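quick one, 65 residues, struct below
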Amino acid sequence: MITVFVEPENETFTFERHNTVLMLQKRLGLRVNDALVIRGDRLLTSDDRLVDGDEIRIRKVTSTG
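---
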């Protein structure tokens, strides 16, 4: 199981399995540049692998131009 915390909505999701950050972003309806994906104190890229037991924080970012 992968636990995902989404900010700023403060929602928590659990997923059975996702191989990469990109797959997780697609599942959440996010494009690559829509959010920062963080594991612990490390920023992840779309090709980083996810493993069982991961706790991931997704921090949505917006541009106000």
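Strands lie at 2-7, 11-15, 35-39, 42-44, 55-60.
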